[in-house]
Amino acid sequence: MQDLFVASNHKKKKKERRKKEFDNKEIIKDKGPKEALAAFAINPKKVRAEIQDKDEETILFLRRHIITNVGWIVLILGLALVPILAFNSFSFSVIPTNFRIMAILLWYLLVFAFAFERFLSWFFNIYIVTDERIIDMSFVNILLKDISETKIDRIQDISSKTGGFVRSFFRFGDVHIQTAGSTPQICFEAVPYPSSVTAVLNDLILQEEQEKLEGRVK
Amino acid sequence: MTPFEEFIQNLTLSGSNFWFLIKILFIVALSLYLAFAVIIVRQVKIMFETLKGMLDWPIKLIAWVHLGIACFIFILAFIIL
Fold first, then answer.
1. Which of residues 186 through 215 in chain A touch B, CB cutoff 8 A?
2. Would the ipTM clear 0.85, i.e. be above it?
């Protein structure tokens, strides 16, 4: 009973310390009201990965910055205009009307499929940092998904990289995590506030080392 | 008449089955698309099982509506072509 009390007390202290740490950072102000669509969420209450334990706390929820979607959105708008421009430029009178209608419908179906696939790829490509591990869920395309995870105590090296005008302006970049596990490297691509993510991960590593020293490792 | 229109007219005149062939191509393309729409519904379901607490129902609804539209256009192709 005594041990259980100590563990729960320790967890509370840990949570309070982390809260203080986040309060000192301006990033907390940018936390969107809708966690599900956010690219950066601290302590999300609802979002959980299936592989997480019940008592495992989600500390960070990350995905690519929303600005990374601009490229494909512009492309979709361009593709949506193609039939309008084509029918204004050419008469296509030799093609029967029913075939013309079907061609337009098929074109818009394909454009929608492309847009939906791009959106799902952004939506499901997520990174979760818990108090025990980091999880990288990649939705490569509609047929391929890849989930890799590593324990916090297996992290060997963390580095963050922000380069270029857009990345500097919108404050997003890559976080590279070297691990001693089966996945040698996990990369958080184009996530907001990479230096803050690195700081949080470093803090978690220190906490994990402290737990090891105190003999409270799960 | 533009070169494209001439080309299409020549094809149409050279074989009476030209538009029938195009119809078959449309139906094959739409049946592949239908399979793709089914895969999207399945994948979205699997991803939401892997990840809980996200915008489940709006995205599932979009995937199902997309499948419905794909079915409708597939049937429409049989009717109007």
1. none
2. no
